[in-house]
Design brief:
The complex is a heterodimer of chains A (about 475) and B (about 260). Chain A contains 16 helices and 9 strands. Chain A is α+β, with helices and mostly antiparallel strands. With about 260 residues, chain B is of the alpha/beta class. The C terminus of chain B is likely disordered. The chains are: A alpha+beta (about 475), B alpha/beta (about 260). The structure holds adenosine-5'-diphosphate and magnesium ion.
Chain lengths: ~475, ~260
């Protein structure tokens, strides 16, 4: 402990000191003229009791108990002019600290093993990134049906692409059975039969009207089956008694060689592009904002006069505060203000960039060699010439290098910003995680990794050239 | 003629760097200023072109009062006063050519110089200056690719761009290998022979004997000696540099 013992040992009764410390920890030490030590013991004991009480596990009371007993012994020692080692109470406090730490973080290693099935349900789709899909050719046709039946329903026959489709009867009411006959389809091919309402809603016709209905064509490409009009066919109709034309679609598809960007793959590409440009725009605006601020935050420029010095202190403090707020938190605030989307993320990253670059830039300015400035003044150059010929050549390359590095960091940050609605790949990623679409999650992970590694490599190369 | 009269400099922190220094420099002299480090040599040289504002006293140049000059007049005066620095003070990330051209800034207008537009005659002048100091082939190199001795030659070429009448050289060879000292000082000697007045602070006595036409010694901001180089004998040397001092030679290869 930091307390020092006076050269003249206190002539205090050790029994009184011990008793005082038994009543209130630290009191005996204070009585024995070890004021500093006494206050620390009092404070430590108070804190230990408070924490043990708060977390309520009886075992934690061991630490204050050890501290209490040690404190009596220490008070007696102090009265006799001896300093006791504080190892034991410190150890007790440390054990309590880690014990409570374990308790509050809810460490539960068995959870890692217990939920193996959940782990596999996440890990296995990870090996099938949803980025590309096979390409297919489709073959489809349709015929109209009137629901409900009107005075003279149109004929439920139609020919599309050489495929003839006929429905009978040509109108009906909900749940009524209809016969679908078609010819001219691809032979021996599963054919999806779907219901389309007048406003274009596609309803499946399989079991319970929630799964697709597939019927395989015969060797001649003919199909003959029955379906039921979906009970929800009129749920979007303004007037369910008004007869309207619905359609029955027959769709066949066949894989073709080659592959294309899958639907989610398209979102991944879109999200990544959004992320890169989000980072680019925020880095640019952040850098533009940081340049003037950095001059105000440079001590060598602002230190001369009490007024400028106070501006320097204020600007520095604001930058430090702004820099300490995670962009994620700023993004949440701006999502509330400007709404979901990349704009909120851009504001958050821009603000953080201003703070981070402002500090780095100002350090560059503080580190410039004053010699060339002196030389330009000595040849009769004016202020603007001094800036152009002595200051700018010294600061532009490091500024550019720091800015590039920031862009790199901002791309990484903006992938996370999406999680709180700040746009970019993170926005999609978050939704896929919620939906449990881990194949799409996997492809976004891969895309993020590729972009981050590439950018890291490129920016390192360019920066090496700049300095 | 340069007249320094009762020059005193007190820094804001209270350090008295110069105390009532008076002397006169005739045109065409090679005046060397000696003294221990901290004796006020740099302060004195910078008070002459007012890179440092003197606290008291005045500096007259051909009758014009430099200490009273307005900012505009001061820039006019400065462009005829070249300065060579111990640390060269070249911009390391700029090209040699740009560094040399910057010596011309007192003559050109701000607008075109800020855009980096230089007239053909200025570029030719810069190349000639580089030729004079023997590094014309380095014109397009970045300054930090040059050795210390070459960077100091860039510093001299920059000074030549000013068409100076007076050169202030603040320990121009103190950061260089002793063997390089002569090569740099000989350029200053050559310019001096062409009629340019040179004020130069130096550390090594053999260099003083070799180049100075006259010597001034400072000790704790006070002028303690003024006279010819040969007048600095052992006793004077001890007086200027203190009892412990030993004479050190810059180099034994006089003509390198
Ligand atoms: N900017 C300054 N502020 C305060 N004191 C200074 C400053 N520059 C120089 N000094 C002091 O002034 C004295 C003379 O310095 P200087 O002229 O650099 O001497 P020299 O060039 O002979 O080494 C030294 O004591 C030095 O510490
Ligand atoms: Mg000096």
């Amino acid at each position: 402990m930091a307390a020092r013992l006076s050269s003249n040992p206190s002539k205090r009764s050790s029994i009184t000191a011990g008793l005082l410390s038994l009543i209130l920890p630290g009191l005996g030490q204070i009585y024995a003229r070890q004021r500093y030590r006494g206050v620390i013991v009092l404070f430590g004991a108070f804190l230990a009791v408070l924490i043990a009480f708060w977390y309520g596990v009886p075992a934690w009371y061991a630490a204050p108990a050890v501290l209490w007993l040690w404190n009596v012994w220490d008070a007696v020692g102090a009265a006799r002019g001896k300093l006791r080692s504080a190892f034991l109470p410190l150890l007790a406090l440390l054990v309590m600290g880690y014990g409570i730490g374990w308790q509050v973080t809810g460490i539960d290693f068995s959870a890692l093993i217990r939920n193996l099935d959940r782990a596999t349900s996440i890990v296995i789709p990870m090996f099938h990134p949803d980025f590309f899909s096979g390409v297919e050719t489709t073959n489809s046709a349709w015929a109209p049906v009137e629901v409900p039946c009107g005075p003279n329903p149109p004929e439920a026959v139609n020919t599309v692409n050489g495929i003839h489709v006929a429905i009978s009867p040509n109108c009906g009411k909900l749940n009524q059975e209809l016969t679908v006959q078609a010819s001219g389809l691809w032979p021996d091919t599963p054919t999806n039969i779907q219901w389309a309402t007048p406003i274009g809603d596609i309803l499946p016709l399989g079991k319970g009207f929630i799964t697709d209905l597939y019927v395989t064509t015969d060797a001649q490409g003919n199909l003959d089956t029955t379906i039921h009009i979906p009970p929800s066919a009129l749920s979007a109709a303004p007037d369910p008694t008004l007869p309207l034309e619905h359609r029955i679609y027959l769709v066949q598809s066949r894989p073709r060689p080659g592959f294309q960007l899958s639907e989610n793959g398209g979102y991944v590409v879109q999200g990544i592009i959004q992320t890169i440009f989000l980072a680019l725009i925020s880095t640019t605006f952040g850098a533009l904002g940081a340049i003037p601020i950095s001059f105000l935050a440079a001590r060598n420029l602002m230190g001369g006069h009490p007024l400028t010095l106070s501006i320097y202190v204020i600007v520095r403090t604001l930058l430090n505060i702004l820099r300490s707020i995670e962009p994620l938190i700023i993004a949440i605030i701006f999502v509330v203000i400007v709404g979901l989307g990349p704009f909120a993320g851009a504001i958050a990253i821009t603000l953080h960039t201003i703070a981070a670059l402002g500090k780095l830039y100002s350090e560059v300015i503080e580190g410039i060699d004053p010699g060339p400035l002196e030389a330009i003044r000595a040849v009769g150059g004016n202020w603007i010439q001094m800036v152009r010929y002595a200051v700018i050549p010294q600061i532009v390359p490091p500024f550019a290098s720091f800015t590039l590095f920031r862009w790199d960091i901002n791309v990484r940050t903006s992938t996370i910003i999406g999680f709180v609605g700040g746009g970019g790949i993170g926005f999609y990623l978050y939704q896929w995680i919620i939906k449990g679409d881990f194949e799409a999650v996997s492809s976004s992970f891969i895309a993020i990794a590729v972009i981050v590694v590439t950018l890291d490599f490129v920016s390192a190369r360019v920066r090496a050239r700049l300095v | 003629m340069l007249q320094i009269e009762h020059l005193t400099k007190v820094y804001p922190n209270g350090t008295v760097a110069l105390k009532d220094v008076t002397f006169t420099v005739q045109d065409g002299e090679f005046l060397v200023i000696i003294g221990l480090s901290g004796s006020g040599k740099s302060t004195l040289l910078r008070c002459i072109n007012r890179l440092i504002e003197p606290t008291e006293g005045r500096v007259l140049w051909d009758g014009a009062n430099i200490t009273r000059a307005s900012p505009a007049e001061l820039r006019q005066l400065r462009r005829h006063v070249g300065m060579v620095f111990q640390q060269f003070n070249v911009v390391k990330r700029s090209s040699v050519m740009t560094n040399v051209l910057s010596g011309r800034l007192g003559y050109v207008n701000s607008f075109s110089s800020v855009l980096g537009l230089w007239s053909k005659s200025d570029r030719e002048r810069a190349l000639k200056a580089l030729e004079r100091v023997g590094i014309a082939d380095k014109a397009d190199n970045r300054a930090d690719a040059l050795s210390g001795g070459q960077q100091q030659r860039v510093g001299i070429a920059r000074t030549l761009m000013q068409e100076p009448k007076l050169i202030l050289a603040d320990e121009p060879v103190a950061s260089l290998d002793p063997v390089l000292s002569h090569s740099i000082l000989r350029y200053l000697e050559q310019l001096n022979k062409e009629g340019i007045t040179v004020l130069c602070s130096l550390h090594f006595l053999d260099l003083v004997h070799r180049y100075a036409t006259r010597v001034i010694a400072l000790k704790e901001g006070v002028k303690v000696f003024e006279g010819l180089p040969k007048e600095i004998d052992r006793a004077k040397f001890k007086e200027i540099y203190g009892e412990e001092a030993q004479e050190v030679r810059a180099t034994t290869v006089e003509e390198g």
